[in-house]
Amino acid sequence: MSMKDLAGRDIICIGPVDWEPIWNRSQQLMSRLPHSNRILYVEPPATLLSAFKDRSLWFKWRQWARGARKKTENIYLYSPPVVLPFGYMYPWVNRINQRWILLFTGRIARKLGFKGPIVWTYLPNTLRLAEGLKPSVLVYDCVDEHSEFPGLVKREAVLEMERDLLGRSDLVFTTAPGLYRAKKKYARNIYLLPNAADVGHFALAEKEETPVPGEIGRLPHPLLGFIGVIHEWIDLDLIEFVARSRPGWTIAMIGPVGPGIRVDRLTGLPNVHFFGRQGREELPGYLKAFDVCLNPFKKNVLTDRVSPLKVYEYLASGRPVVSVDMPGVMEFKEIIEIAGDYDGFLAAVDRVLQTDSPDKKKLRLKVAARHSWESRAAYMSEKIVEIEETGDKK
């Protein structure tokens, strides 16, 4: 079996993030399914309060009125209307929200003529929405320990909603060993499938013709770099420690700073530079400038159960990687540096700067090539076909 076995199918993806601007697993996979699939990608709705906390979300109040927006020849985007807040704290609020979203999303799916769709969800609280769309196969792709997210989340409420989804899903994928162990007793058909990289895209960092953006190209070396959303789970204390310990090193932080995240203590340092959100097309150029790529996650339950997408992208660029010690990177322990504490992290960067070689880069690129989104999409498609052929569904 191969990806072509899903050809011609209708798929509704309940996405964890908007399609743009930052791509993660959901967009990478949906964009690699056969073009004969019709895909409706449902973006997460804003709540009645979220736009007051983050002004950039006001556009979502009117986005839903546009209906389905055609993104590519086979992918449609839909942003549902705003919902009640506190859906991740109170299951009864979530039930109201899911019925509300279903009312509008179901109407869009019918208008597009979707029949017996594969429903592919990324959110732990979406069982009622997913089943209301009358799926032929229900897939839950579990990429995070959602119950550990900071903010308006009640841990036990999220776990309860997710267990219902796990129990009713025909097929479950998890991205990290910790997630697999935590979820397997609630799911019937569950597989461990880590993240991957857009290998061809990030390999552009190795191309001579790929330009380095002028602003980062002017920074002094050695240049340490991070790419990703700067959120609660990124250890900014570690970044500060490295910057203060090695004033001759330069650190570049590429990516948006999440709401409520204070970076003042870092912006005041002369060797730390923030470049904000950059387009996907520009990222290989930024990576080309890096001497070392950093994976500075905090160590907690959330990060113990995550597959760090950025590490796959770093490796696909050929750049050396220094990471904190976390289960999601252990499969790469032979080709990256892994540190257990701050002093160890500093020493690991020192080692990389002194010992990296063309042979090590060649090995990183070889390993990265095995972890492509194409291979992940093919594997998941194969498992969906197996479920349908064997009738091993809920």
Quick overview of this protein structure:
This protein is of the alpha/beta class and 394 residues long.
What tags apply to this protein structure?
Rossmann fold, 394 residues, single chain, 15% strand, 14 strands, alpha/beta, six-stranded parallel beta sheet, 2 domains, eight-stranded mixed beta sheet
Q: What does this protein look like?
A:
This protein is of the alpha/beta class. It folds into 2 domains: 3-196 and 372-390, Glycogen Phosphorylase B (Rossmann fold, 3-Layer(aba) Sandwich), CATH 3.40.50.2000; 199-369, Rossmann fold. It has 17 helices and 14 strands. The chain has helices spanning 25-30, 50-53, 60-63, 91-112, 127-132, 155-168, 177-183, 199-202, 214-217, 236-245, 264-267, 283-289, 301-304, 309-316, 342-355, 358-369, 373-390; strands at 10-14, 38-42, 69-70, 75-78, 118-121, 137-142, 171-174, 190-192, 223-227, 250-254, 272-276, 292-295, 321-324, 337-339. The strands form 2 sheets. The chain has an 8-stranded mixed sheet, with helices on both faces. Helix 10 (236-245) links the parallel strand 9 and strand 10 (250-254). The longest helix has 22 residues, at 91-112. The two termini are 22 Å apart.
**Strand arrangement, major sheet:** 3-4-2-1-5-6-7-8
Could you report the average pLDDT, rounded to the nearest whole number? 92
Say which CATH homologous superfamily of the largest domain is assigned: Glycogen Phosphorylase B
Work out the helicity level.
Answer: 25-40%
Structural class: alpha/beta
**Percent range for β-strand residues:** 5-15%
CATH fold assignment of the largest domain: Rossmann fold
Q: How large, in whole angstroms, is the Cα Rg?
A: 21 Å
The helix count comes to 17
- CATH level 1 class label of the largest domain: Alpha Beta
Could you tell me how far the N terminus lies from the C terminus, measured between alpha carbons in angstroms?
22 Å
Per CATH, which architecture of the largest domain?
3-Layer(aba) Sandwich
